[in-house]
Amino acid sequence: MSDTAISAVRAWEALDSRGKPTVGCEVRLEGGARGETTVPSGASTGRHEARELRDGGIRYGGQGVRGAVSAVSGELFGAVRGLDATAQSSVDQALRSADGTTDLGRLGANAILAVSVATALAAADARGLPLYRAVADDDATPLLPLPMVNIISGGAHAGRAIDVQDFLAVPVGARSFAEALEWCSRVRAATADVLTARGTSPALVADEGGLGPVLPTNRAALDLLTAGIERARLRPGDDIGIAIDVAATQFFTGDRYRLAAEDRDLTAHELIDELAGWCDHYPIVSIEDALAEDDWTGWRDATQRLAGRQLLGDDLFVTDLARLDRGVRGQVANAVLVKPNQTGTLTAARAVVRHAQDNGYTTVLSARSGETEDNWLADLAVGWRTGQIKVGSITRSERTAKWNRLLRLETELGEDADYAGATALRASARTTLDGARRT
Ligand SMILES: O=C(O)[C@@H](CO)OP(=O)(O)O
Ligand SMILES: [Mg+2]
Within 10 A of 250 (CB to CB), how many other CB atoms are there? Predict the structure, then answer.
């Protein structure tokens, strides 16, 4: 047996940042190297995502997560025992075959991702490499990503106080990752100050640590964020752009998009008009899930009408190669959100990043709303050169675990790493910033 052969896989129930059950896992190799992870879980999940075993994510110790945990230490261990951990794609293929379903719903995508990630960490440990180096192509320069940081939350993460799920700061003018993060931290604090000055308590904090104020309209949230940027003495558009995750699947009723907070029911065409109106008035650089997950026609229209912005598919693509390829062929969207747990293995997530990069789609590596204190996502962003990363707010330790890892890597790597900065967005998105104006 070689030193990098998998010798043991253990699993246990753990908690995610919402206090809901998830899977913890350790992979050990013959030579003594090891890797350990606790996997994340989403709330605004797409219908086409790989399937977790979670009992609907409600009961700690329920059969769902228990089933996933026993799958890890039973069938999945059996499938990867003795395999070389440094051959990630063979390990991932064995995991997928052991499950045997396309959506990984028999043993659970959470069980499979846990083994996949812990294997990558164990392999890196065995090779004496940091994870970002172990997952990178041989000649690739590490790339620190442009962060997008959640400031205001609505939708499924904040009791649906507003319809749009995420309002994020994108520090397009920052010259380093550290400066980018510092600016976002200032925007977060200043936005909370604006609420306090208005007499609205900012104390309500959403699932990802974003502010969850009750506001009358989605535009009011864009106004609030813009006011926060200015109060932080930064320039909306030049220093900080705005990204939104509309998460439109969440309020699509079958034929209409229902903006409940505003009591309006819109057709896809009308929703695109609404978004175009926002783009005229606010420095919006990126729009995620502008339309619902299966509204390919609406998405195609949006891609044409909102051209120039990063149009990011999350529920639309669900980190699935075939769905991304359909988008590429049909000229739908121009960017993909990559969440490893939507697809179940690191190999599959990596293939999506490559296909996007080969076809001029930008890539944003993303955490989930139910996160853990792990920081491997930061290493994947750097090693895979995704260019952008989204991990929620800048408060709460399950988020700062990723930011802090990136801060450390930037300091450690110095000149040996690139910083993506605004170039991670399409050049055309950058130009729209100059034309953006406020009411
Ligand atoms: O929709 C999203 O992009 C994510 C993160 O904000 O949320 P969830 O993990 O709930 O899908
Ligand atoms: Mg999303």
Answer: 23
Is residue 339 annotated as part of the catalytic site, yes or no?
A: yes
pLDDT digits (tens, 9 = 90+) for 145-177: 999 999 999 887 777 778 999 999 999 999 999
Pocket test for ligand 1, best of 110, 160, 165 (most atoms within 8 A of CB): 165
- Do 35 and 8 contact (CB within 8 A), yes or no? no
Which of 56, 65, 55, 54 minimizes the C-alpha distance to 12? Answer: 65
β-strand partners of 21? 15
Model pTM score: 0.95
Which member of 26, 339, 371, 402 is catalytic? 339
Write out pLDDT tens, residues 92-132.
999 999 999 999 999 999 999 999 999 999 999 999 999 99
**Measured in angstroms, how far is the CA atom of residue 368 from the centroid of ligand 1?**
5
Integer distance in angstroms from the first to the last C-alpha of the chain?
68
If you measure from the C-alpha of residue 126 to the centroid of ligand 1, how many angstroms do you get, rounded to a whole number?
A: 33
